[in-house]
Design goal:
heterodimer; A: 440 residues; alpha+beta; D-Maltodextrin-Binding Protein, domain 2; 2 domains; five-stranded mixed beta sheet; three-stranded antiparallel beta sheet; globular; B: 318 residues; mainly alpha; MetI-like fold; sn-glycerol-3-phosphate-binding periplasmic protein UgpB (chain A)
Chain lengths: 440, 318
Amino acid sequence: MSTTRKSIRAVRPLAALLTVGMLATSLAACSPADDTDSGSGGDTAASDSPEGVDDGTQLTLWTRAPMEKQATLLVDAYNASHENQVSLTITPNDDYVAKVGAAAGSGSLPDLFAADIVYVPNWTSQGLFTDITDRIDGLPYADELAQGHIDAGTYEDQEYVLPFVLDLSVMFYNKDLYREAGLDPEKPPTTLKEYGEHAKAISALGKDGVSGTYFGGNCGGCTLFTWFPSVWAGGDQVLSADGTESLLASDTAKDVYAVYKDMVDSGAIGTGTKDETGATWTGPFQEGKVGVMPYPATLLSTAAETVDVGVAPIPGPDGGESTFVGGDGIGISKDSKNEAAAWNFLSWLTSEDAQVEVLAKNNDVVSRADLADNKYAAVDPRLVTINEVAAKGSTPVAINFQQAFNAPDSPWLTLVRGAVFGDAKNIDADNDEITAVLDQ
Amino acid sequence: MTTHTTAPVSTPRPAARPAGRRRKRSALRGRGAQGWLYAMPTAVFVGLFFIVPILLVVQMSVSDWPLLAGNRGPNFPENFQDVVANKYFWPSIVFTLKYTVIATVLLLGLGLGMALLVQESTRWKGFLRTAFLVPSALGLASASLLFYALYSPQSGPISPFLEKLGLVDEPISFLGTPTAALWSTVFLIVWRFAGFYMLLLLVGLQNIPGEVYEAARIDGAKPFQIFRSITLPLLRPSLMLCTIMCVTGSLLAFDQFYILTKGGPDNSTITVVQLIYNMAFQGQNDLGRAAALSILVLLALIVINALQFRGMRQTDEK
């Protein structure tokens, strides 16, 4: 009897060890994925037509929420005029990276997906997109496409990404509030310092709930989108050419921070600015509660529904104008099995049909310089302003951009909050932190 | 005397014994095999959904595994070194421990108080019990979103209400400073979980036989003495259970901070799990490092829970 009990007692740990061993070896079997160098070869370009294939394929497209309106219009227009059918999935901005990451890891990325252009250098270098250099070169208007976006998606001289929807930052102002404050609604600020004056004038109205200006005080992405153009307009760069050094402690940059700090100190900013994580940063202007603030141009048609909107380029501290050529780039994923059909969508996307008849018609900027002067833009002087400033803008490129600028615990956010809500004494040290992250 | 009578009987026994043992062994093996069969479905589930993921996380933690590019081969111990060198590693541990202490003390204290209240008041018992338990109907993420809206400086109703009552002069920023953000979140957690712990402690209270109280009252004990010398000691198992649950849950706090503060303001409310999430999906996009930090958290939890269980056993033995 004791031997049977002993044998059972001996069997138990042995069985446990065996189970663990079996599971471990089964894990080792599904070990490292094959080493994919970034971008599989785009060797089929020569065989299909330069416009790809339109044969009724079901394509999947992912994009993030800020681009929802434009993406829906584009997809609907494409589906109505082509055999291929695209099904669109929109994901909230904060969850997009996790979703793409999970799909990339399991080899289940959709045929097409868009990416915030500042993340594109990182994602391209990690091999998420298919090489489409030959296909892009085959486009007759390849030289007219927004160069900043193409450059962001270029890795080791191969191109992977086309511009999807351009989002520029421009100064929006509420013409009604301007009139009430005694400012000329046709004379928007031409220098950043003037912007500060206008904001203070509107704040002095003392209207309930109305503030001079508003910004995402706890949002790295919002502030870089709206403040970088002021630095460029002042003649300075924000990053070194290779994206490993931050130049955000220059005199021009410090002048920019000083203007915003002045507005904060004089109470011209809206309540909730300091805590705004970016989830609702565009809300107050659309409710008519903000006088003047830098804003995404893609929201012109939405904001114009509720507010008499005036548009001006974002100025530097003492003049000049520039813009952040942001938005999304789009590419064919490494996991797509329908490259030719997916290219059909991309080539249509960059054609006049899509750029003018869909994007420009919706009061959006086109991605092609030769179409900037289209019939819709000419009708609305605000669009003329936006299209003109597009040529003067920039897109910063850095591999570690997200970690340095967009993440909730990024050093850029620490710099911004210290410079504008704090005592502005730590700007140089915070800037070195940004460089440390970019340089990893 | 008996040995003599049994001696002749004992000789055939050695031959019979092995046969008997074999019969017993096969009978036992039959039952043992049956037992394993019954346990197999659960064992498969435990293996598949518990053991395999842990082994995968261990593999991740010793590999260079970016989120987007996948497994790039082993790199032990780089991930662990990077994690410990991360500038938010120690602050997040300190903050998580601070939050755990505050939340446990408040939740257990209030839970016990509410349980005693519900037990004593016969008239309002049903109403009070329901009122305290209703917040448990909300998931934690939904409750966090609710409070995000309540605390919102633009559209939250609490601040204007207090201003109207004249209790405060200017709008309160619930999430704007590190201290305010911590206490606002603690308030949310207490609102959501106090009822649950009240329920657990109520069950423990009701298990104390009434005769003990009667005996104590006959002996002339005052209410506070009864509470200290009878209620608390007899409630110890329930208190221990609640402590273990509360401590483990608070050490793993994530939902409420992710939704209410996202680790802000100024990275003052980053908990350890929030740091894991940040490493995996927000910027660094490195699953290897996130897995390394997860393993460290797992080891810490094992140690803490082992200590708590030992404490529980010691008090039982007393």
